[in-house]
Specification:
This protein is mainly beta. Helix content is 8%, strand content 26%.
Amino acid sequence: MSSRLIDISPVVSERIGVWPGDVSYTHEVSLDLQSGDHLTLGAMRTTFHVGAHADAPSHYVRGGEAIGERDLDLYCGPCQVVQVSIARRQRLHPQDLQSQPQQPRVLFRTDSFADPERFTTDFNSLSPELVELLASRGVRLVGIDTPSIDPFDDKQLESHAAVAKHDMAVLEGLVLAHVKPGTYELIALPLRLARADASPVRAALREV
């Protein structure tokens, strides 16, 4: 196994885009070596859904698990990156796949959300039919290179509901433009945050 890791997380800074109405990223410094303090201490304030992140069931299911309660095995292990090309704003359907996924974790590269610092609403998403197909093939985690597995204006969150039905894990906000389709090992562990509806992750792929 190669030791090379491919970072698939965007840089989190004050410039990163967040969902309209959500809490933007801010970085506050309490102590600073550059100002003569004996060490540097900083703090951040932002949404749990900033950058690459894992959704918790509590984000879309009443009474669902918080992210700190999730099984870490969901977020680490064999993974397949699948590249697709469909019209903007559209959901990805089973017929859009050129081949069937073969791994228990599947990340979709849509190239429809090119700049993490500029939030746009015409990104691609997943269809509930595709989630059902993946679940039937034993997929435990789905990920995407956009802010959501559902369209921007979908208030029913149909694909999130399909994920909840099968207790699958969700990764959103990934950066996959530099990743070739194929099989990898995924490492994207969420923080053990009590009561949190999501967690930022430092997502990476290891070549196998």
